[in-house]
Amino acid sequence: MKTRSWLHKGLNVLIVAALMLSNLTLPFTATVSAAPRAAESDASAVTAMSTATTVTGSGKGQIFMDGPLGVQVNTYNGNLFYQRTDLLFPTVLPLAVSLSYNSLLAAQDAGIAGYGWRLSYDIAYREVADGTIVIIWDDGRRVRYTPQGNNTFAAPPGIYDVLTRPQAGRYLLTTASQFKYYFDSDRHQRVTRIEHPNGQALALERNAQGLLTRITHSLGHQLRFGYS
Predict the structure, then answer these.
(1) pLDDT at 228
(2) Mean pLDDT across the chain, nearest whole number?
(3) What digits encode the pLDDT tens for the residues 172-222?
(4) What is the DSSP string of 144-210?
(5) CB-CB contact of 46 with 93 (8 Å)
(6) What span, in angstroms and rounded, lies between the C-alpha atoms of 34 and 49?
(7) How far apart are CA 50 and CA 63, in angstroms?
(8) Cβ atoms of residues 59 and 52 within 8 Å
(9) What is d(CA 216, CA 223) in angstroms, rounded to the nearest whole number?
(10) Distance between CA 225 and CA 209 in Å, rounded?
(11) Distance (Å) of CA 184 to CA 31, 83, 192, 196
(12) Has residue 169 got a pLDDT over 70?
């Protein structure tokens, strides 16, 4: 266990060095058609921020170090977390391409940008046999909602988002700040629409493999993805 811990921390150091010396090459191409830019920006609408307690389940007695380029390292468990934004239309509800890396999830998540990397729109749900719904955020956080009957669910302590099931196979997550995340496909089980409290929205389209192919902003911005 001790050897594995040192190997894990050593790998994180190498990742930090690689991030400092080079840029990540994305395995997809994106083409954009844009409407006129709005004046206000609120990037928190798209990317859920990661905190130490969401990764470990307990932040007690843990120290988090900020490294270069926004890298964060949990000195208790060696976890490395990093976010970067490659494209941004700064409207009230931003249209952005951002990536998150979480080393604790590297063995589990093989996203389109590689193991441990997740796109900002990689927000999904999973159904558990007992009826529990797990929301998986773009930074790797997992939040479990337990069924309460009448298509409603109870959030864990400290979480004030509300999950409902308007129809079979469809879910709606409303955050405490009144952002809405629609999950309208039980095939790929990923977010299909993100809505700002002021009415601006992003519609997300995916192919048969569940890969993101197009994002359309209600203001007219459009972002298309191609894969090779």
Answers:
(1) 79
(2) 76
(3) 999 999 999 999 999 999 999 999 999 999 999 999 888 899 999 999 989
(4) EEEEEETTEEEPPTT---EEEEEETTEEEEE-TT--EEEE--TTT-B--EEE-TTS-EEEEEE-TTS
(5) yes
(6) 26
(7) 15
(8) yes
(9) 6
(10) 13
(11) 25, 27, 6, 17
(12) yes
What total of structural domains would you count in the chain? 1
Handedness of CA 97, 102, 108, 113 (dihedral sign): positive
11, amino acid identity: L
pLDDT tens per residue, range 70-121? 788 877 777 788 888 888 888 899 898 888 888 877 766 666 777 888 888 9
114 burial via Cβ count (<10 Å: 0-12, 13-18, 19+): middle
Domain carrying residue 154: 2-227
Let me know: does 188 contact 210? Beta carbons within 8 Å. Answer: yes
Amino acid at 193: R
Torsion over CA: 194, 223, 44, 189 (sign): positive
Residue 127, number of CB atoms within 10 A of its CB: 13
Give me the helices (H) in the chain, please.
Answer: 2-21, 52-56
Q: 224 with 213: CB under 8 angstroms?
A: yes
Alpha-carbon gap, residue 42 to 40, rounded angstroms: 7
